[in-house]
Amino acid sequence: MTKNSYLKELERYLKRLPKEDYQEAIEYFEEYFDEVGPEGEQEAISELGSPKEAAHDILTQLLDKQTKLTSTKTLWIALLALLASPIALPLALFITLVLITVGSIFISVLITVIGLIIAFSFTGITMGVAFLGESLIDLSFSIPSLLFGLGVSLTSLAIGILLVILLVVVFKFGIKLLIIFVKWIGKKVNRHA
Amino acid sequence: MNYYPVPSPLIEFLILSLVDKQDSYGYEISQNIKLVTTIKESQLYPILKKLEKASYVESYSGVANGRKRKYYCITKEGKEHLDFLMTEWIEYTDKITKIAKGELRHDKE
Questions:
Q1: What is the side-by-side strand order in the sheet with B57-64?
Q2: What is the pLDDT of residues A142-168, one digit of tens each?
Q3: Which residues from A are below 8 Å from B44, CB to CB?
């Protein structure tokens, strides 16, 4: 493998990193190869290991260091690191598929819950308005039924908001679990190496 | 030689010490680290990057032999952190040596 094909392959694995991180990492390795010169090229390559291994090192370390990243960015890097894991391709594919499935379930649950929340709040508010209307039409303005309607709608809204908070917590926890999992794979593999 | 592993906090200590004396670039830093341990560039790079993110080092691009080169230099925060690391290191090695020589022992009540 030549320097150029090595760098090309490394670029392929790191491509989805945030642009700035990607640029810097590639420049670093280009500079390194320039310094060792054509004579040292093969030695440097064998020292580094395959581009996949090198990419895996970089990606897992970035996961470690960049705790201030947004969760979507972290999720991306974790997935990239997983794909660059030096484990058998079928296994990597399997894990990715499982992750995608879990992700889809997450999203469908999210959509369902949001739907329920909207329905709930809507029903609550409608009921409140209906009660209000009814009590006005009856001309016997009923304070208890008005209060009941308002109470129902407010309760529904409150439950909805609580559910949203719960979902955010679950989602963040899921990402943390994923990161732990990726690091675990990295460690397991390194021990074998 | 190089029997003991050199974990990343020590690598950070070494990098900061190197750039404290003189601005340096990736390859030179890596050659110096390799005096005490085998480390891959793919492992060294993220550590350098971490030091930069923590504002312990700064980088600027220079030119040497007609090629672009990224130089790293230490910051004020970096110097303070290096002082801390040096104190810790002296205490750590001092204790280990003393235990090994039988000069330090946990006193039983």
A1: B24-25, B67-74, B57-64
A2: 677 667 766 766 776 777 677 777 777
A3: none
